[in-house]
Amino acid sequence: MKVPPSFFLLLFLEACSNMTPLALQTAITGAAVPPGAVADNRAVHPEIWPKGQSGVASDPVVEARVADLLSRMTIEEKVGQTIQADLASVTPDDVRKYHLGSILNGGSSGPHGNDRAAAPEWLSTADEFWRASMNVAAGHVGVPLLWGTDSVHGNANIIGATIFPHNVGLGAMRDPALVRRIGQVTALETRVTGQDWNFAPVIAVARDDRWGRTYESYSESPDLVREYAGEMVRGLQGEPGAPDFLRSPYLLATAKHFIGDGGTDRGIDQGDNIASEEELRDIHSPGYQSAIAAGVQSVMVSFSSWRAEKMSVNRPMLEDVLRGRLGFNGFTVSDWNAHTQLPGCTGSRCSAAFLAGIDMFMAPDTWKGLWANMVEEVRSGEIPLSRLNEAVGRILRVKIRAGLFEEGPPSRRPHAGEWRLLGASSHRAVARQAVRESLVLLKNEHSLLPLNPQLNVLVAGDAADNMSKQTGGWTISWQGDGNTRADFPNGQTIYEGIEEQVRAAGGRATLSVDGSFAVKPDVAIVVFGEEAYAEGQGDRKDLAFEPKEGKNQQLLQNLKAQGILVVAVSLTGRPLYLTPAMDAADAFVSAWLPGGEGGGVADVLLRKSDGSVQYDFRGRLPFSWPRRPDQTPLNVGDPEYNPLFPFGYGLEYATPQKIATLPDTSPAATHLGGLDREG
Ligand code: BGC
Ligand code: BGC
To answer: Over the stretch 569-578, which tens digit does the pLDDT of each residue have?
Structure first.
């Protein structure tokens, strides 16, 4: 390509300029520890971690209330506070009987077994569970429960909600203020349906893009993640000290997954991070630093291991580092049945994690046995009462700070049941702005873009009119698969957005998934991408998108062969090896996983009918783009950094640049592809 090498050096230097000296050193030396040498070297040195402070100050009034509640609660009630059950495996009666402190809806759980339940049913379900938790019969202390949900890109479990781009796209925006605004809208729409705890933001720093959760990561750059984490927490929780902090329209946020989830070996989900302690600190903790400064009140502990030990039992990290050094003062929650994976533990018994500093167990379907055994373990002294009081105290403290004891049932809290807020046009406008800002222009031969909307435009590719591919995982269902157009009453596909504007301008846009046409178009926009996926299932063995003779590549080449100008738009949760597609197309745009507002793509690709530019590109790569399918890990700061497009790259209309034919350095590419790591 024509970009001079000095250009990369410049970008590298620019990226380094705001790194800490240690991050810089790590970036330059790589400092990776050879595998094998690590398992016996996981001593934690809290003193090398930065001393941080929570944005939430300790308050004697709150402390007195915590002490009073603890003094009135039985062991059974206390144990109940430390356990969270999943909607699919718990009833309000269970909550009443076992005094459970929290429920969640996992990615595929919904009220009464219906993942697609209508919004009012979510809210009435929230009330039923809340009422059960407030049971004061027989002298019980009614402690309002928290309902946790994964509103990781809007309240996207709910049909009709505004769906934002996934984090990878937000990373491309480089717009912290918009991130905060997205947090506010997400919190508000989640309050409408009655949930008061969001398992977001993911502040993973994905370092190997084979990881299926790369799209949940803002960036490979710790600096960008640091910049965003605090903003998102403020957007979700509000300002510490303000009267509405943690109260509707805000809610409780979760920084997850502590720590090093994005740095596992080979990008394997729930895998082993073999980094040095310094790398954990410099790469994976900056997001926690800003989230804690913003007052984040819960932290989800990672499924992953550090040097062959699961984080969920790493007491030095959970207690001495997270609290002692970084200053966290909320409560920790484990990940989905993570305790079942720990040595010496079963689904129904795991004092080790509790003693290590897990304050609340996410025990979706294992909660009942766990509850019974914990009660017994406290009675026998295996779990000291002091540790139980500590964990419950942390949970109660957050519940008090959130005003839960005063707020009443979910349906009576501000904005609950205001259905018009779900997918409100002002909210969709925020999402659409995010889509526009997240698009990254990688190639624009002959300044093909922006397109004149009065042309005859063919819109092709199987992602052009495909809500499931646009929105990805964690959308209505866990993996985001199986969603149809009808599941998105408030969204717009990319094709619909283009068609609307082209028609308004007097042009013509035709949808043709396979690229066939009756009248030769002036230009084709080909939209293609990954199938929706979430954790686990999205892991890859390499970064190949499809074989060279794959159907998308054929589509691009067929159109070119007919003398048609081609704009390619890729929908992927991460940079993938797409050099052949980039070479085949005249213009290439990475749109990541843009979410529900496909119209944002047309806003940037199309001119106004008077010929002027609507919106220029402003997206910059949040991840380095690989030259080869096997070029991973690939991160800015690597000693021999040689990406196809460097971190921070992105073209603009304002400064047209020509990109020559890209070097296809991948003879093996034809044989690669597919999601099967073993295959
Ligand atoms: C996910 C849940 C999901 C469940 C399905 C878990 O790992 O986090 O949200 O519903 O698996 O089995
Ligand atoms: C995921 C978490 C999520 C939880 C609940 C887990 O499998 O790792 O990110 O919050 O499930 O759905």
So the answer is: 999 999 999 9
Q: For residue 487, give the nearest of 166, 160, 192 by alpha carbon.
A: 160
Task: Look up the CATH number of domain 46-421.
Answer: 3.20.20.300
Taking CA atoms only, the protein residue closest to ligand 2 atom 12 is 106
Catalytic member of 223, 227, 279, 535: 535
User: Which ligand number lies closest to the CA of residue 300?
Assistant: 2
Nearest alpha carbon, ligand 2 atom 7: 336
| Positions of the chain with pLDDT under 70 | 1-40, 660, 665-679
Query: Measuring CA to CA, which residue among 380, 330, 405 is closest to residue 133?
Result: 405
pLDDT at residue 3, rounded to an integer: 40
Q: Is 630 a catalytic residue?
A: no
**To which H or E segment does residue 579 belong?**
helix 579-584
CB of residue 537 inside a 6 A radius of ligand 1: no
Query: Which residues does residue 571 pair with via DSSP β-bridges, in sequence order?
Result: 529
Nearest ligand to residue 88 Cα: 1
Residue 577 φ then ψ, to 5°: -70, 110
Q: Residue 392 belongs to what H/E stretch?
A: helix 385-401
Tens of pLDDT along 579-617?
Answer: 999 999 999 999 999 999 999 999 999 999 999 999 999
Which CATH number does the domain 439-670 belong to among 3.40.50.1700, 3.40.50.150, 3.50.50.60, 3.40.630.40? Answer: 3.40.50.1700
User: For residues 83 and 319, what is the distance between their CA atoms, to the nearest angstrom?
Assistant: 19
Nearest CA to ligand 1 atom 7: 336
**Model-level pTM greater than 0.85?**
yes
Residue 456 has a pLDDT of: 98
Half-sphere exposure of 189 (CA within 13 A, CB side): 32
pLDDT computed for residue 51 by the predictor: 98
Largest CA distance in the chain: 80
